[in-house]
Design a protein that fits this description.
single chain, mainly alpha, Growth Hormone, Chain: A, globular
Length: 421
Amino acid sequence: MKKIHTWAWVPALYFAEGLPYVIVMTVSIVMYKNLGISNTEIALFTSLLNFPWLIKPLWSPFVDILKTKRWWILIMQFFIGAGLAGVAFVIPAPFFFQATMAVFTLLAFSSATHDIAIDGFYMLELSPFQQSYFVGIRTTFYRIAMITGQGLMVMLAGRLEKVTGSASCAWTIAFGAAAAIFLLLSLYHSLVLPKQETLHTVPQKSFKDVLSEFGATFATFFQKKGITAAIVFLLLYRLAEAQLTKIAAPFMLDPVDKGGLGLETEMTGFVYGTVGMVALVLGGISGGVAISLKGLKRWLIPMMLATNLPDIVYVLLAYFQPDHLWLVSAAVAVEQFGYGFGFTAYTLFMIYIAQGCYKTAHYAICTAFMVAGMMLPGMAAGWLQELMGYRLFFVWVMICTIPTFFVLPWLKMDGSFGMKG
């Protein structure tokens, strides 16, 4: 009965974790492009929305001591549903860009807090065996949420734009539907989430103890051997991808005479949000299998190459501007598969760095550097693209794939880490 009950909430919970993130970070890009916002503004302001995930480790200890994880999950889901409805409400307004950005910022903070509570609840409610058993399930449903937002939601907005003749109306309806789905998820979780968790599930600590441990967490992280090279590696690994991600959808949507591919919104949702996401998932699975056989150190350079070299497909797409959907889909699938395959090494490297005391907190600090590595380059991507044009911008992205390799000689790593057994 316990296992059946767990199946009732783990998949839905991680679907609920992934959906607001992909809406804030990816769907917003397509929406703003449809509504006439420049690439410079899109890249700058949507990159800034990473900030709550960047500073998430700073308030995660307080989620532990104030209320239960179940309470945080339910209240944040209500706020997220209300926030999505708020975006739908302000899209038709003349000042929609400022208003939607304000609501997206609140959504980002709510979603980051939601993530903290979900991951804590998962570890508290499940035994170590169950945590291992469900890790693949939670990842799968998180990815399904990504496909739902980046693929199906964008495709819905594209279809509605054709029917209504108005991008504003189409996105209003799409966000209204997303809000309804999320509020239903909130109601569902209020019924199925286990209620036995209390504030005394783990020993309670005073505010002074929390601050002391908080300081020790950061001190011990920065005392790790080789941590400087590791941090530089974390910041540079996705230097190219951080810029490419912000411009990929606008590139597909822009007309051919402006250097883009001239795809409709619905087709962009299919190519980038569905075909691309499926390839990303398959790449991630393949990467996990590869590392389990030979270890992280053996696969690090091949996976770095897999992450970076396929970016060249965007150079080719920009120069040749093919009008065959299957060709564009194949190119995106190649790039996303390589990124998924290579990102496995990045994830395992963060786990490797986080080993030792405070490994949960140290992993959270690693993810903060990961977010910084995406946010800072992404902020300038739109400005660079409008300055250079799509062709030279994607050449610049290829140049940005090089710096990470210069850090490799300074990285220290156990050769067997990540291998099965």
